[in-house]
Amino acid sequence: MPASKGYAAQSAQSALAPFAFTRRDPGPTEISIDILYCGVCHSDLHMARNEWGQSIYPLVPGHEIVGRVTAAGSAVTRFKAGDVAAVGVIVDSCRHCTPCERGDEHFCAEGATLTYAATDRVDGSITMGGYSSNYVVDQRFAHTVPANLDLAAVAPLLCAGITTYSPLRHWKVGPGMKVGIVGLGGLGHMALKFAHSFGAHTVQLTTSLKKKEDALRLGADEVLLSTDEKAMKAHEGSFDFILDTASAHHALDPYLALLKQDKTMTLVGLPEQPPVFNVFSLITKRASVAGSMIGGMPETQEMLDYCGQKNITAEVEVIPIQQINEAFERMLKQDVKYRFVIDMSSLK
Ligand code: NAP
Ligand code: ZN
Ligand code: ZN
To answer: N or C: which end of the chain has fewer CB within 10 A?
Structure first.
């Protein structure tokens, strides 16, 4: 069984610390990957601290993985040793239900297997994430990476990228639409880049006015301070779509007020507390509140290929793994520009 080393939380209260474990041997359709980079998603922090009540310890976080294939099973067709491969939030599913057959593995009727803190379908062990030296995964749940992109800056595409690309595509964001992105963090800055790239008039909503210049540089047509009631009022009833990426508790009503009649605000952020809003915010214009979660394997590959064509990657601050606990604290202070990525060579 391949040995692995990584960083794990031993409980909801403990900091991440070095942890050694083993991975199972790869099967015929599986690849082994040496991890080069792993992005730091706010979900990793929610999970390390058991904020959603589903964590299993020891917990090795990490689901924005880019690495190099070290071995490929006899039935693997898409990868060979030496190739770059990328892995996101899920690493398995039943593969035969209707959503799985459609390529919506993330909506698997039997429940997709998460990259960490989930029960492995093959051997019943608990999955350990990408804050580690290596991974073993079926080729169906691995992606190829366009050769022109910087690998550290690709890692965040595997969660922040697909989680924003998918709803923007689903709600057909494009030219002629005014689109709001709530929160300029890891997900938010990718949403901003995609909405801009899809041709929408893109408005970045933020609680941090100091991020204004960055938002404009990253593609925002306008920046709106969500705590400025007067400025918010001036935009009332003018948005065709809003994507909410905020990681902490906030009332939805000030944002719902921005929507035109019959339009949708989609939540991808997952604060510890459930969202609150006044039903009047919806009924007075038949507005919808919706949700979206990552994306299926075909759409994830489509997103990566799109990024290759358009030269889109994340804005990253590369850190050694020894700085992960500090990175978590900075994320809580909304002090991320705009995704931490761990250089896994620092594990050695
Ligand atoms: P992040 O990098 O920490 O960014 C979150 C941003 O939310 C902050 O930078 C801040 O932006 C904004 N924010 C924080 N508190 C706020 C508040 N009270 N009101 C309004 N805005 C606030 O986090 P992330 O990695 O992008 O993740 C964002 C959320 O998405 C997390 O809850 C994460 O678990 C979730 N997530 C969901 C999925 C999915 O499939 N649905 C996938 C990945 C992550 P400003 O400073 O600009 O205000
Ligand atoms: Zn994530
Ligand atoms: Zn399924």
So the answer is: C
Atom of ligand 1 nearest to the CA of 271: 32
Instruction: Identify whether 298 is part of a domain.
Output: no
Task: Check pocket membership of 331 for ligand 1, CB cut-off 6 A.
Answer: yes
d(CA 209, CA 21): 44
| Tally of CB atoms within 10 A around 131 | 28
The parent domain of residue 78 ranges over 3-158+315-347
Give me ligand 2 centre to Cα 42, in Å.
6
Judge if the beta carbon of residue 294 lies within 6 A of ligand 1. Answer: yes
136 lies in the same domain as 253: no
Pair (36, 7) in one structural domain: yes
For the whole prediction, is pTM greater than 0.85?
A: yes
Q: What is the pLDDT of residues 298-343, one digit of tens each?
A: 999 999 999 999 999 999 999 999 999 999 999 999 999 999 999 9
Q: Identity (one letter) of the amino acid at 175?
A: P
Residue 306 lies in a domain: no
CA–CA dist 234, 243 (Å, integer): 19
Judge if 22 and 67 occupy the same domain: yes
Which distant-in-sequence residues (6+ apart) come within 8 Å of 284 by Cβ?
none
Q: In this structure, what CATH number is given to the domain that contains residue 267? A: 3.40.50.720
pLDDT in tens, 145-200: 999 999 999 999 999 999 999 999 999 999 999 999 999 999 999 999 999 999 99
Distance CA 343, CA 348 (A): 11
Q: Report which ligand 1 atom has the smallest distance to the Cα of 249.
A: 18
Does residue 18 sit in the same domain as residue 85? yes
Residue 42 Cα to ligand 1 midpoint, Å, equals 7
Ligand 1 within 6 A of 246 CB?
A: yes
What residues have CB less than 8 Å from 318, skipping those under 6 apart? 37, 152, 340, 341, 342, 343
Alpha-helix residue ranges (DSSP H) falling in the chain = 42-48, 98-102, 151-154, 160-170, 186-197, 212-217, 229-234, 253-256, 280-283, 297-310, 324-332
120 and 215 within one domain: no
Residues 168 and 153 in one domain: no
